[in-house]
């Protein structure tokens, strides 16, 4: 398409955070709108110098923007990083190369390697609108991606991002399928594995739909927003790291997809597998342990679902050249006492320090995961993984390693405590029959987690525990009274989050 | 949920057109953002006086908004219509009542009446985000809505909007499934039907993915943005009208869905039927004729697809109490000479006036549709519909009625002509073998249609016509040189829009 030099506009900063979506603001009477036929919500391709971005147009009808200016949202500004006084030119974007593949998938066709590559390339380059991304995620939901498509999507996600090379030798990694509040084994597992001399360069995500991701929790204790060079220095020095994956551009298409998966709050087995394994392959992993909690309110709800997902993970992992094992774990109730970034960090630290009162369930699960992961590594005598993990933890070597990793990442901090705390009490006596993970997580989110790092829920009760009327079932932690009240209001209308049976 | 009086903000106008999507802008340091834990792209429920709207939050990081202010996009402003100096309060929106139904449909469950009602109620009230709407449209794409769901969705769309009551007696209506550029029979059919003394209160849409909707074309000749009272006056006086449906709130949920269907450029049989028939039922129609063009580049591409869609229309129409017939028509090539609002209006006027050189195909099709519709009406002798229609047109009664309807709607205008016109010529001699409706429509859209009312394409050639090298195949009409050049650039890279065979 031709570009029109006469339609260039002076770039100014809008000072508006539209999340990751690039938005440009033009005056209704600006020559670009008029001559190019752009209207509100048009997608436009903007070039500033050598950089390009596809952005959504919002049309300014007021008088705070000149007709020869274009204002850029924060995301658009970061994409083109204009110099002072820069000018931008505009054109209609070419239709995304993947538009045909998206349409075909929506109408039930199968995606091949080329389709997946086109889709992930356009996704990573932000050439698809949020509406198109939502259509793609929906078209792949449930069982609508088969094994072959899952492998193709995984390969494509790897292909469009960076791929780390650790120079040969085993590289260990782990992942939890999620849905279990407080199941924050990663910092403990990484510390154990690295303390035993293995390499485990762990990248983690922030929360998508949960009250805390591992990156959110780790960030309470040490910086996690490391770039690739910094991450590499940490791993070379300490053998392991626990960093946020967002700065290292591993599987960037997945990061973009998460932008729509988060508000939709649904994904699919195929996309879950592609998301998880593309990150592992891109991070250079060779041995991967998947922790898969199964329970009626976990992400994986039944044994049948667990088998299906495990099969897909194993088939795809094998196709990607990974030595991968799936550990099915109990997903009926939360792990540890805290739910929320800082509250989970406190549980992690208690286990690593061997503190009295440290949550035994978190310790047990971390040792099981670390043990199973060790068994995948060359050199571990069969059946000896759990014992080796336990020795590393009980000897204090894992705690020392954790502190060393934190220092290498920029320095350790002790988690703080939320200023507003309020109990939710048992309406009557009884015995805990079940715990609704999703609704308990919802309370933690309404309390402010993960945005408010100190916010969340503390719950020490477990299935089978007896309670008396008026006894606290769990405690809401919040950084503002408004958020505390939201969480309490929800808790008061959902009295069966911890459901009681008459003993 | 509790509302927090201390978090009220002074309402100002942002002066930003975000299309129909309500957006509110708050400063990063404003008390609502801080105390309520709102972050960029959060959905917030805003109340101003007694009016409420759910809007997307954009966070202002610059200094052009005070911390105690909230700026409203045009759509948000219209939703709450604040008085001078008004204050707004905010809360987290309740999860949409239809969230569970949406999720279930995405994962393959069947929608029942209650699901559809919840979904359409939330859709009409703008309680679903564009991302959620895109997920819904995708989850219903292709064959994913069965007949029962289609009926339930149609009923729900009718239930959440206005429903016109014409006081008994037959009310005629027609609809074209579309995909055939230039097939602008509606103004002619309405004029014929009304001239014969029947009632035909026609509401039409603007273009969704085409270069012109009937409302766009009609607007070139007369005002169409009438409210319900004005529409009623026109119909009471003249028996018929041709107005834009957007101001009369018939099936408002459908109007919202179109917001995401337009950029996605796909819909489904089920949604198409629900969309079309909900509008007909809401408009009070009792006799409905569906014009269904079938051709390789029309919306309906094969006889099998036509049969399936016709069956769905008939079953749903019957369930909704309509006397409905489907007319399968030739959809292999455009109708008339013009594609684009004003160019199609000129064809319509030529047929109504009986002008020499009026497009014969448009005349023939309009008479076929009007004839078939008349046969549905009580009192028409069987087989006499086409003859009655032809008499009304050839006698000049239809033209007189059309002018009277235009006057009643606010006054007739003669269409203008585009200032920039350029031919696309045949690269070689040959005979027209096929015409790609979609790509020809795309040229018209790149030329500016329907936003630029005079823009589009004029094409007088038809399948079978011989051409010589260098002869114009079609002519691009544009209101700006930029748009003309876009259209020509596309035409030059797609030389088979009119494909030639060696004679």
UniProtKB/TrEMBL annotation, chains A, B:
* Residue stretches making up the Pyrimidine nucleoside phosphorylase C-terminal domain: 431-498
EC category: transferase
GO biological process terms, semicolon-separated: pyrimidine nucleobase metabolic process; pyrimidine nucleoside metabolic process
Q: What is its EC number?
A: 2.4.2.4
Which PANTHER family does the record match to this protein? THYMIDINE PHOSPHORYLASE (PTHR10515:SF0)
Q: What family classification does the UniProt entry report for this protein? A: Belongs to the thymidine/pyrimidine-nucleoside phosphorylase family. Type 2 subfamily.
Q: What is this protein's name?
A: Putative thymidine phosphorylase
């Amino acid at each position: 398409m031709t570009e029109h030099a006469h339609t260039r506009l002076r770039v100014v900063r809008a000072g508006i955070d539209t999340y990751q979506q690039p938005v440009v603001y033009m005056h209704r009477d600006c020559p670009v709108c008029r001559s190019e036929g752009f209207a509100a919500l048009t997608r436009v391709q903007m070039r500033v110098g050598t950089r390009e971005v596809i952005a959504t147009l919002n049309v300014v009808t007021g008088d705070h923007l000149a007709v020869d200016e274009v204002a850029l949202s924060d995301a658009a500004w970061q994409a083109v990083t204009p110099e002072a006084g820069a000018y931008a030119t505009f054109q209609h974007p070419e239709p995304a190369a993947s538009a045909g593949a998206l349409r075909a998938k929506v109408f039930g066709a199968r995606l091949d390697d080329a389709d997946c590559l086109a889709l992930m390339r356009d996704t990573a380059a932000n050439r698809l609108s949020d509406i198109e991304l939502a259509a793609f995620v929906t078209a792949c939901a449930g069982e609508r991606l088969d094994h072959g498509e899952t492998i193709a999507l995984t390969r494509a996600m790897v292909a469009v991002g960076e791929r780390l090379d650790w120079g040969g030798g085993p590289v260990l990694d782990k992942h939890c399928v999620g849905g279990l509040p407080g199941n924050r084994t990663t910092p403990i597992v990484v510390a154990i594995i690295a303390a035993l001399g293995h390499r485990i360069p762990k990248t983690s995500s922030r929360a998508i739909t949960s009250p805390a991701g591992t990156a959110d929790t780790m960030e309470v204790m040490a910086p996690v927003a490391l770039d690739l060079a910094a991450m590499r220095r940490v791993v070379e020095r300490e053998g392991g790291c626990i960093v946020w994956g967002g700065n290292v551009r591993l599987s960037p298409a997945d990061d973009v997809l998460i932008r729509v998966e988060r508000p939709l709050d649904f994904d699919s087995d195929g996309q879950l597998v592609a998301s998880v394994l593309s990150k592992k392959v891109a991070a250079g992993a060779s041995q991967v342990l998947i922790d898969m909690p199964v329970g009626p309110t976990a992400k994986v709800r039944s044994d049948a679902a667990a088998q299906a997902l495990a099969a897909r993970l194993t088939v795809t992992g094998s196709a990607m050249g990974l030595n991968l094992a799936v550990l099915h774990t109990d997903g009926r109730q939360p792990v540890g006492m805290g739910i929320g970034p800082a509250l989970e960090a406190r549980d992690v630290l208690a286990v690593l320090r061997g503190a009295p009162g440290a949550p035994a369930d978190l310790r047990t699960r971390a040792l099981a995961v670390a043990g199973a992961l060790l068994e995948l590594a060359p050199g571990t005598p069969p059946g000896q993984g759990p014992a080796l993990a336990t020795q590393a933890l009980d000897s204090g070597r894992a705690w020392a390693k954790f502190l060393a990793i934190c220092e290498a990442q920029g320095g350790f901090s002790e988690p703080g405590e939320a200023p507003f705390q309020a109990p939710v009490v048992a309406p009557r006596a009884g015995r805990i029959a079940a715990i609704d993970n999703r609704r308990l997580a919802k309370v933690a989110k309404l309390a402010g987690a993960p945005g408010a790092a100190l916010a969340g829920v503390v719950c020490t009760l477990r299935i089978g525990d007896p309670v008396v009327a008026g006894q606290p079932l769990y405690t809401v932690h919040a950084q503002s009274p408004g958020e505390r009240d939201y969480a309490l209001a929800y808790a008061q209308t959902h009295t069966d989050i911890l459901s009681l049976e008459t003993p």
